[in-house]
Amino acid sequence: MTVVRGTPVVSIELEFDAATERAVRTEWQALADAGLSSLAAHTSPSNAPHVTLLVRSSVELASVPLPGAFPVTLGAVVLFGAGERRVLARSIVPSAELLALHTAVHEAAGPGADAPHTAPGEWMPHVTLARRLKVSDLERALPLLGEPIVGVARGLRRWDAASATVTGLGVFAAGA
């Protein structure tokens, strides 16, 4: 069973340190300043750069052992979707620490109906920069994005789409 599009979902997300978050927000703003689709336009307090680790229609999460903070690289730009408009994102280089965290989150959640893009073996870690970017605008968008961003993973949060709430699940210990 998989999550059905349009169904309220809960996700478990990896958060970044302040410097990494600023670097992503800078790219969001560069796209917006150029009149392009960007997550900068989404001003909800819950809108923060993150990597989605798990998505289900509901999640009862047992305790997740929190690792020490670890480096994370936001790498090459990728496109998701089909048609005239796409999701523009930065891929995340899958380090041993990141893969271990993804496994730990899924183990803590137990069996369930994962969204395919977050299920073990199908996961494509990324940070979204824009939704519904016109393919015809890609030539203008790419030069606005800088070199890969080397940042720090700092904690976990739970996003509940039905109630539009974010709950912190813990901050990683400093230095790993």
Report on the structure:
The structure is a single chain. The chain is built from three helices and seven strands, in the order βαβββαβαββ. The protein is α+β, with helices and mostly antiparallel strands and 176 residues long. The protein starts with 9 loop residues before the first strand and ends in a 5-residue tail after the last strand. The mean pLDDT is 90. Strands 1, 2, 3, 4, 5, 6 and 7 form a seven-stranded antiparallel β-sheet that branches. Strand 6 and strand 7 form a beta hairpin. It has a single domain (10-156), classed as Alpha-Beta Complex (Cyclic Phosphodiesterase, Chain: A), CATH 3.90.1140.10. The chain has helices at 18-33, 96-109, 138-141; strands spanning 10-16, 50-56, 70-80, 85-92, 126-134, 149-160, 165-171. Helix content is 19%, strand content 35%. It is globular and about 45 Å long. This is 2'-5' RNA ligase family protein. Pfam families: 2_5_RNA_ligase2.
Key features of this structure:
176 residues; alpha+beta; Cyclic Phosphodiesterase, Chain: A; 7-stranded antiparallel beta sheet; 3 helices; Cyclic_Pdiesterase; 2'-5' RNA ligase family protein
Please specify the SSE layout and strand pairing.
Blueprint: E1 10-16, H1 18-33, E2 50-56, E3 70-80, E4 85-92, H2 96-109, E5 126-134, H3 138-141, E6 149-160, E7 165-171
Antiparallel strand pairs: 1-2, 1-6, 3-4, 3-6, 4-5, 6-7
